Amino acid sequence: MPSDAPRPHATHASPEAARAAAATVLDAGAADAVGALAADSAGTLGTVLTHASVRRFEPEPVPDDVVAALEAALVRGPTSSALHSYTHVLVRDPERKRRMAHLAGDQRWIDEAPLLIVGCADLRRTRAMVHARGYRYTAHDLRMLVSATADLTVGLQNASLVAQSLGYGTVLLGGVLNGSLEIAHDLGLPERVVPLVGLSVGRPAGDRWPTPRPRLPLPLLVHHEAWSLTDAAERALLEAHDAETCAEGTYEGRRIPWAAMGRGGEDPVAEGDYGILEHVGRKQGRATWGPQGAKVDHDLPAQGLRVRGTGDVDPD
Ligand SMILES: Cc1cc2nc3c(=O)[nH]c(=O)nc-3n(C[C@H](O)[C@H](O)[C@H](O)COP(=O)(O)O)c2cc1C
Questions:
Q1: 267-284 pLDDT tens trace
Q2: Half-sphere exposure (Cβ direction) of 50: Cα atoms closer than 13 Å
Q3: 185: left (phi > 0), else alpha (psi -120 to 50), else beta?
Q4: The model's pTM
């Protein structure tokens, strides 16, 4: 693929777009200030603030130079203790990508996007390095899992921002976790290299960019110096936001069936009352779950992602 192929324009990353996106979470004065800064940030602010997941893609391949930029972005971010506890696998083969789409929960956009990046926690390489020096591996505590997950997410998010800055759309894919064992098998991954999160990349269909989607009010998500919310204030902010999501129909077509709540009878919540509170309530308060939770509980340890005690000596 020639490197002088026409590039889409990332107009969504302009200072005006940055200001408009900032205004969805900041007051008007702060959003103006951010808009002014955006002009100085070489597009970074605009790219970050106008992010929206893309789930419809053009089939054209991502050019090699863009792929190279993504590879660099995947590894140039910070890495916990400089351990590099991650490995990313880029998948472009349509047949393999189709299988990945199925294994990650039948997500059509994985199939549709020309590039899939499978982000893996890699607890294998560091162990090999320990063994190379003749030591026994003892790093079995939760910190290894947390730092590997942080490492791979940093890489994927950086790649996502680079892609978006160049006019490519992306969507992160936690669904990879559900098919982790089978995906690892398909990709020929050794034990302890465990797929956890993916990223699809491609030109947005028709060059249409989704407008940035709503966020919870900033005071719920960001505090200064210390926790600054009373429970009552939190409740009031949540209820106000809930009313907005009901009025805007944010969850239209995404309703979690009442049957999942295990309470019997007809769904008591009318269409216009199904907002973020009801949705999260159903999502995390359901009585019946699919097999995925138990599958992940089984599959991750089966791939060597086991948490044991600090200092526990590896048997091999
Ligand atoms: C860790 C993580 C996992 C995600 N997994 C999926 C996924 O499997 N499929 C998907 O379509 N979107 C996935 N998303 C995207 C979210 O659904 C999306 O970010 C959220 O709905 C907010 O929308 P926005 O990104 O357009 O602002 C994931 C996002 C994150 C951060």
A1: 999 999 999 999 999 999
A2: 27
A3: alpha
A4: 0.92
Higher pLDDT, 83 or 11: 83
Q: Tell how far the Cα of 115 is from the centroid of ligand 1, in angstroms.
A: 17
Beta bridge partners of 121: 86, 194
C-beta pairs of 203-208 under 8 Å, 24+ apart in sequence? 203/8, 203/57, 203/58, 203/60, 203/167, 203/168, 203/169, 204/54, 204/56, 204/57, 204/58, 204/168, 204/169, 205/56, 205/57, 205/58, 206/56, 206/58, 207/8, 208/56
- Cα(171) to centroid of ligand 1, in Å? 6
CA distance 226 to 277: 25
Distance of alpha carbon 254 from alpha carbon 299, whole angstroms: 28
Write the pLDDT tens digit of every residue in 154-167: 999 999 999 999 99
**CA pair distance 28, 135, nearest whole angstrom:** 58
Residue 292: Cβ-neighbour burial (10 angstroms; 0-12, 13-18, 19+): middle
CB neighbours (10 Å) of residue 220?
Answer: 14
- CA 316 – ligand 1 centroid, Å: 38
